[in-house]
Amino acid sequence: MSILNQPIPLILPDSSEAMWYPWLADLILCIHFGFVLFVIFGGLLVLRWRWIAWLHLPSAVWGAFVEFSGWICPLTPLENWLREQGGETAYRTDFIAQYLLPVLYPGDLTRDLQLLLGTVVIVLNTAVYCLLWRMQSRGASRNR
């Protein structure tokens, strides 16, 4: 009998593979939470390490854009897919509504609240970058 006539075994994920999905979903959750914290507070890191601005500014723009546009961050569907693959239930809202708002605010995420969160990101980070700019301007004028 040749190898071409052999039946192809059907490979199904065993329970050990399926148990990785919830772990990966939790990892995505932690990364997502860290990204949200970086978007909000990353400007403070720039006060110490200037090069972080190259990472923080695009992140803050993305975070504010997601809030203003009403989009859902791509990490949310990825986390939900991993949870479903692991036999868990996915959630129907976005990351902020699912995890952060129950801690920070009572009630559901509304469009007005999304706009407020986007505004907070912009105002907080604008204030930090203005402070940084003023600090650099003063330092440059002292060196003249």
Structural class, judged by helices and strands?
mainly alpha
Strand content: under 5%
Give the uncertain stretches in residue-range form. none
Radius of gyration: 22 Å
Helix/strand order, N-terminal first: HHHHHH
**Silhouette:** elongated
Number of helices: 6
Task: Tell how many strands the DSSP assignment holds.
Answer: 0
Average pLDDT, rounded to a whole number, is 79
What is the terminal-to-terminal distance? 88 Å
- Estimate the helix proportion, in percent: over 70%
Largest sheet: none
Domain tally = 1
Describe the 3D structure:
- With 144 residues, this protein is mainly α.
- The protein has one domain (17-142).
- Helices cover 72% and strands 0% of the residues.
- The chain is built from 6 helices and no strands.
- The protein has helices spanning 15-18, 20-48, 53-69, 75-85, 95-104, 111-142.
- Helix 2 (20-48) packs parallel to helix 6.
- The protein is elongated.
Layout of secondary structure:
Layout: H1 15-18, H2 20-48, H3 53-69, H4 75-85, H5 95-104, H6 111-142
Helix pairs in contact: 2-3, 2-4, 2-6, 3-6
Concise overview:
This protein is mostly helical and 144 residues long.
Keywords:
single chain, 144 residues, mainly alpha, 0% strand, elongated
